[in-house]
Amino acid sequence: MPPTLLLVAFLAVLGGAIAAPPRAPAGWSLHRRADPDALLTLKFSLVQSNLDKLDAFLLDVADPQSPHYGQHWSPSRVKETFRPSAESVDTVQAWLTHDAGIHADKIKLSAGGDILHLDVTIAEAESLLETEYYLYSDNEDGSVRVGCHEGYTLPEHISKHVELVWPTVHFGGPRALSRRGESISKSSSRVGRDSGASKTPIENIVALAEVDCDTSVTLDCLRALYNFDFTPVSGDVNTVGVVEFGKNVYRPWNLDMFFETYSPDQVGVIPTLISVEGGDPTAAGVVDEASLDIELMMGLLGPGQNLSLYQVAQTNTSLDPTDRLLAALDESYCSVAPAESEGITDCGNKPRTNVISISYHLNPDLNDPAISPVVQRQCAEFGKLALTGITFVASSGDYGVSYAGQCLVDGALAFGNPSGSFVAQLPASCSYITAVGGTSVAAGASTDQVEESTTDFWSGGGFSNNFARPAWQDAAVQNYLDNFAPNYDASVFNRSGRAYPDVAANGYPIVVSEKGRFVHTGGTSASAPIFASLIAAVNDARLAAGKGPVGFINPALYSTSFAGAFKDVTVGNNPGCQTDGFPAAPGWDPVSGLGTPNFVKLRDAFLALP
């Protein structure tokens, strides 16, 4: 066999350099060596063609200065452009049959031409990949799977054609998949907290009509804060969706309770269900996240705009539900998804909405061989979908510069907010997603005044360890790094990484109805659907003017054409990892991004584009 190189997450980034093997997977126990005679289906995910041009393709349709602005691609054009080359297919097949001696009958190419399926024994797989396979037990649910946590090798001439091999080093996301941006109260502990954190009950909802928006944020407060005077005019042509994962569900009577007070015309109205892998919003589960998202989006957009609910089933905690969502939106991703063997059946058969809001963090942004290849592939898929005209919006998180209270210590995630390197979160740190940080109205301030970065939780923000800083945010981010960034050691954060959040919106104290009562709640889980609603309203105006949806908005937001569309937030910071995190500052900053939106100016700036 020819000389080999370890295939790791960042092989392409490091130009083929050998990296240290991954650590044993967190959350799993090593059970025993796999039976050498047991059968295994290996999946060789082939390198996509033209992926190095994805940014250029997106800028061509998303840069306000481009003559092709708004000319989004068809799904079929996207599929053919990024389909692996015939050279990649032929090279890997030839290696498997001629060099490795695998019979051709054991090798099958997926319908999309992007993955080779190979039926072999464990012994054959170990010989092929120069590794050892083991059985691992999930510490949470007891499920067992096969893998090779110490890595595997491929010939150098083959590794450049192969993106991933399954099953090998990837064991799914962290133990707390489908964590939301968080629902918090002033008294709640932030470290290690997530969905279901305590709320502040509201004893007298009628009395809220007489209080200010610094103590209770209602729909009217949000309309005043963001100059959001909106009545839909495009009808069913305009589409907007919100994603809920696993057992995060809603109850219609909670919506009705909210709408009876704040939008009587919507009593009895529920979102349109788009069930992914059998996701059921009526099942038993936790109602806080979905209630927050749906009430805010439906309430802000009003009865003339339908909201679609992507309810994504999560039956196995070791599987990343992001893969199920992406596969449901794009058939070509279905065979690539690592969970394919676990039963993904919704493959490109679900409708795509113009805007999709995600109030969850699903993976830490680590340069880790067990995580990086998957999250990089996921991010690229978000970019390909954005090329078709979808705007993805995500919460930036509620733990400042840490990942849910975890920081990087000696190369591994450590709980308890220890002193260590900052950890960004996904999907917010993916460049093709618009990340939204959290703000609050300052004590005693009015809605006419600029908000501040909230102190009721620490708005997530920082720099990616997986994705390089895109050109469209270079000037804004470099200004912050040169003039306002703390003088941390170079190991604390990646100064050259994609910076987030991009924008901000109110995150506390939001008034919602859940479990038969009104509560004050929030987090960037609220900020994301608020901003997504504004972008949906922008699309409504553009469609009414005979134009298309805005799609990938980040290059436009950072351009000079949108300089007046945001209120600059300069007060606050986002502590974590036993530091003060980053301070807010004039211009873009890693706490509040470009600031909070002025809807009328944002809408008019987008209407001025083709």
Automatic annotation (TrEMBL):
The keyword Electron transport does not apply. Binds 1 Ca(2+) ion per subunit. Its cofactor is Ca(2+). The active site is at E289, D293, S525. InterPro entries: Peptidase_S8/S53_dom_sf, S53_propep, Sedolisin_dom, Tripeptidyl-peptidase_I. Residues 216-609 form the Peptidase S53 domain. PROSITE patterns: SEDOLISIN (PS51695). One of its GO terms (molecular function) is tripeptidyl-peptidase activity. It comes from Mycena albidolilacea. Residues 1-19 form the signal peptide. This is Subtilisin-like protein. Keywords: Calcium, Hydrolase, Metal-binding, Protease, Serine protease, Signal, Zymogen. Ca(2+) binds at D568, V569, G587, D589. Residues 178-197 are annotated as: Disordered. It is found in: Secreted, Extracellular space. Its main location: secreted. GO terms for biological process: proteolysis.
